[in-house]
């Protein structure tokens, strides 16, 4: 069977960028704080990722002192973040089910009709099926590259109509864990996406065209964001001592 993603590694600069991103993430896992036990740093990374993901969608990322989150987008992003560990087995074997569950959590406070939650719009099924095939073993490309494709494809598809951005970024995190690139989910590329939100959106739009130049720019952006996310993770590890 032809690996439809393999040619992406031949785009100018992509293979080197993927390698640099992988190396940055692996280095974070070797930080002494993460070697001793990464539960605290992973928890902090998860919250930062959720807040940044919500902010990309225009939400207020601040969590009130009493932890009573009222912003519906932030509340949804935090629910999704909390669910990722338990969803990992489902993501590995049935990604569409995991996506539906994440969308339910992300958009529970955003839709007027709860019956629409978890149901992709008409016309999205074929592309979701193809994506599921890639996630469940249909490609041998590095996890960094697969995560970028999952992220970009879900942003382009907007399969559910509510909460799609939060779901796309969470699915990319799951892919990084499932492929063994970031098994403890320590990195926070979402922060880089937020800080460069204009470039992030432009690159995502380029990926959606399917043109090689646009796809290349998206992949390079994702690799760069992951390197910066690894830098964010090092800061979390240093603070943890």
Structural overview:
The chain has eleven helices and no strands. It is mainly alpha-helical and 241 residues long. Helix 1 (14-29) packs parallel to helix 11 (212-240) and helix 7 crosses helix 10. The radius of gyration is 17 Å and the shape is globular. The protein is 69% helix and 0% strand. It starts with 13 loop residues before the first helix and ends with a helix. The chain has helices at residues 14-29, 32-36, 39-56, 72-93, 95-107, 125-138, 143-157, 164-178, 189-195, 197-209, 212-240. The mean pLDDT is 96.
Summarize the structure.
The chain has 241 residues and is mainly α. The chain is built from eleven helices and no strands. Helix 7 runs antiparallel to helix 8.
Secondary-structure map:
Blueprint (H helix, E strand, L loop, with lengths): L13 H16 L2 H5 L2 H18 L15 H22 L1 H13 L17 H14 L4 H15 L6 H15 L10 H7 L1 H13 L2 H29 L1
Helix pairs in contact: 1-11, 3-4, 3-8, 3-9, 3-11, 4-5, 4-8, 5-8, 6-7, 7-8, 7-10, 7-11, 9-11, 10-11
Biggest β-sheet description:
none
- Could you tell me the number of beta strands? 0
Roughly what percent helix? 55-70%
As an assembly, this protein is single chain
- What's the average pLDDT? 96
How many H/I helical runs? 11
Q: How large, in whole angstroms, is the Cα Rg?
A: 17 Å
Which class do the helix and strand fractions yield?
mainly alpha
Element-level helix/strand string: HHHHHHHHHHH
Low-confidence stretches: none
Strand percentage lies at: under 5%
Distance between the termini: 48 Å
Key features?
241 residues, mainly alpha
